């Protein structure tokens, strides 16, 4: 009779010896068939669970931030470009760090909304809280626990603090005050550098990686036209320049007239066009996929395009001197542009070429980053060099120009507007101009023939 082999359970041998090659092959085939049957059984019995997960992945891959921004702009009229920038801010902690001149830089995009009372800042934050893959709301009362709580006895473990909890996510500061700007640790967190913390003989290191979404009011709660808007923000330039996205907001009588009829009071209108829970699920799934990307790669032509966008505005500033006491662009703005390229490309990873964690950027990613970045420069000119409360985006200025030149019943050649904004005013590049025109057409604000 054959007995059980002790060294290879499940195999039989008359002398309890090492099995032959044929016996071993037969045994491995048996294990393989069993494993295959288990996998098939799991799929068959959990088909709904697998299908739901596959649907989430597919939905996340198809997420279009331009469309999502337009939908959000119907709920809170903040500007489509501004909503896009906010969405990329929320996703940026999931993008990889990038290299410039041999040094690595943070991927996180920081955003500040600086504006009057009742300019939708809190509403933008409210939506961000509902859809961000990971977020933490912070105020100046959390300062004692910002870096963690000291151990109760010497040599003990430092407890987790705000930086630990918000890491790899978004820190939302609804009232950004000078308390934050004066904290050296806060600046180091914004720079995305490793932080060493020492308390009662104990130490810990945090690889900080979080985006800031903040808001503040001017010193008198409303921007005053009698003086430069920048002077009404109580922060030094070293702090403000760390915010890649700085959007000024004002409340005006004209905006009130335009917005009041679009507000659905007491919810008597149609259902909300967005399922926030479903949007968050998509963004969470997208964030998981983004973390698989280790590095974003640009071709030499794409690198040249990014440099040329920066140089074009620097050259125009030499001629126009848009801002009296500082350059329009500084090298930190080149970092911000690269950061936008990095995040936008990573968000689109499912539609791009990926090799061993290396993600190849597409020209559309570069163009979108430049478009949003040039909108930020327009905001900067209005914040630093003007004192008019009627703030306008690039698309608003294009609309105003078309109305001024032709009225509502006349047709204006697109080349004429292109020449004005690109060649004469040097406000934006050619690609950004056409993207803004396309956006206005899709929103139904202008008609093209």
From TrEMBL:
Is Cytoplasm among this UniProt entry's keywords?
A: no
Pfam families tied to this protein: MCM
GO annotation terms (biological process): DNA replication
Span of domain MCM C-terminal AAA(+) ATPase: 77-246
The region annotated as signal peptide is none
What does the record give under GO molecular function? ATP binding; single-stranded DNA binding; single-stranded DNA helicase activity
InterPro entries (UniProt xref): MCM, MCM_dom, P-loop_NTPase
Q: Which GO terms describe its cellular component?
A: MCM complex
Q: Which UniProt keywords apply?
A: ATP-binding, DNA replication, Nucleotide-binding
* Family to which the UniProt record says this protein belongs: Belongs to the MCM family.
Q: What name goes with this protein?
A: MCM C-terminal AAA(+) ATPase domain-containing protein
Source species, please? marine sediment metagenome
Q: State the taxonomy lineage.
A: unclassified sequences, metagenomes, ecological metagenomes
């Amino acid at each position: 009779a054959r007995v059980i082999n002790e060294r290879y359970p499940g195999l039989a041998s008359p002398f309890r010896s090492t099995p032959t090659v044929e016996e071993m092959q037969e045994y491995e085939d048996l294990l393989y068939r069993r494993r295959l049957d288990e996998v098939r059984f799991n799929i068959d019995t959990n088909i709904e669970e697998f299908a739901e997960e596959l649907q989430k992945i597919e939905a996340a891959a198809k997420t279009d931030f331009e469309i999502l921004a337009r939908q959000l702009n119907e709920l809170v009229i903040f500007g489509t470009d501004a909503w896009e920038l906010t969405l990329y801010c929320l996703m940026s902690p999931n993008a990889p760090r990038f290299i410039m001149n041999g040094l690595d830089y943070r991927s996180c995009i920081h955003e500040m909304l600086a504006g009057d009372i009742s300019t939708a800042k809190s509403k933008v934050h409210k939506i961000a809280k509902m859809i961000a893959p990971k977020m933490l709301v912070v105020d100046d009362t959390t300062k004692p626990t910002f870096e963690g709580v000291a151990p109760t006895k010497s040599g003990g473990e430092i407890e987790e603090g705000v930086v630990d909890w918000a890491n790899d996510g978004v820190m939302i500061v609804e009232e950004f005050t000078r308390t934050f700007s004066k904290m050296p640790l806060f600046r180091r967190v914004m720079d995305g550098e490793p932080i060493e913390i020492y308390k009662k003989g104990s130490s810990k290191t945090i690889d900080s990686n979080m985006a800031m979404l903040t808001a503040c009011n001017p010193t008198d709660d409303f921007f005053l036209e009698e003086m430069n808007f920048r002077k009404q923000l109580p922060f030094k330039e070293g702090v403000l320049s760390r915010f890649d996205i700085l959007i000024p907001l004002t409340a005006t009588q004209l905006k009130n007239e335009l917005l009041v009829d679009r507000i659905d009071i007491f919810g008597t209108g149609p259902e909300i066009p967005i399922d926030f829970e479903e949007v968050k699920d998509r963004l969470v799934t997208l964030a998981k996929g983004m973390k698989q990307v280790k590095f974003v790669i640009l071709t030499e032509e794409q690198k040249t395009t990014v440099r040329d966008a920066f140089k074009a505005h620097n050259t125009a500033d030499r001629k126009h001197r848009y801002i009296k006491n500082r350059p329009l662009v500084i090298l930190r703005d080149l970092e911000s542009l690269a950061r936008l390229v990095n995040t936008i490309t990573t968000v689109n990873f499912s539609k791009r070429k990926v090799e061993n964690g290396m993600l190849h950027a597409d020209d559309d990613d570069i163009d979108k980053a430049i478009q949003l970045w040039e909108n930020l420069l327009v905001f900067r000119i209005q914040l630093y060099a003007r004192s008019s409360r009627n703030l306008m985006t690039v698309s608003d200025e294009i609309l105003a120009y078309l109305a001024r030149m032709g009225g509502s019943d006349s047709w204006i050649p697109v080349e004429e507007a292109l020449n004005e904004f690109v060649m004469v005013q040097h406000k934006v590049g050619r690609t950004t101009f056409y993207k803004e025109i396309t956006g206005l057409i899709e929103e139904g604000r202008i008609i093209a023939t």
